[in-house]
Amino acid sequence: MASKRLVVELYYDVVSPYSYFCFEALTRYRQPWDMDLRLKPFHLGGIMKAANNKPPGMVPNKARYMLKDLSRLSKYYDVPFKIPEEFMEWVLTRTTLSAQRFLCALQLHGPDHVEAVSRAFYQRLFGENKEIMSLECIPEVAKAANLTQDLIDKCLKAIESDDVKDLVKKHTDEALDMNAFGAPTIVAHISGKKEMYFGQDRLYLLAHEAGKPWLGPLTQAKH
């Protein structure tokens, strides 16, 4: 009898640098783990507020360490990465809710494109150091991910729909039900139970508990 595929749900926001590396790692591990990866764009601001959490960059010592940590992860995963100079200002004064809604609109109207557009948002923010908070930038991101104009227009129109807003809320509530407090939040279905892991640095523990191999950064499988 064939074993069931490993199901892993990634709750993420495209403003989160650690979510970027987790996203890239998990997409590389689909085949080695025989994994059904389910992308769940959520509202990180809502998670942080509900958990009474705050961005790590607001703790000076943690912020200084984070810059070194992210540089190391960039080399480890072979993912070009740089924090924009305006990053903290953007995080504290703006929101990626439009971007997250666009991704959820894609899940409803073009689900095969969610991964590519998520990657395009990350590459724009942490590769090109351009903002991703404005509604105006979304068509540029979508075109970079090779979406058709018809699909872009359809998803932009759907951003303010109840269906899309409800899907963002659904993903956010699901993560909160698993006691999420930040991003990335990973939920793996192991032996009939849902197990929550926080942070890309816990993927080796997920692998261990799921009986899957941890093979490092798998840079040969990068997109």
UniProtKB/TrEMBL annotation:
Name this polypeptide is given: Glutathione S-transferase kappa
PANTHER family (UniProt xref): GLUTATHIONE S-TRANSFERASE KAPPA, GLUTATHIONE S-TRANSFERASE KAPPA 1
E.C. number(s) listed in UniProt: 2.5.1.18
Transferase found in the keyword field: yes
Keyword Transferase: yes
Catalytic activity: RX + glutathione = an S-substituted glutathione + a halide anion + H(+)
One Gene Ontology cellular component annotation held by this UniProt entry: mitochondrion
Keywords tagged on the record: Transferase
Gene Ontology biological process terms, A to Z: glutathione metabolic process
Source organism superkingdom: Eukaryota
Matches recorded under Pfam families: DSBA (PF01323)
SUPFAM superfamilies: Thioredoxin-like
UniProt signal peptide: none
Protein family: Belongs to the GST superfamily. Kappa family.
Source taxonomy: Eukaryota, Metazoa, Ecdysozoa, Arthropoda, Chelicerata
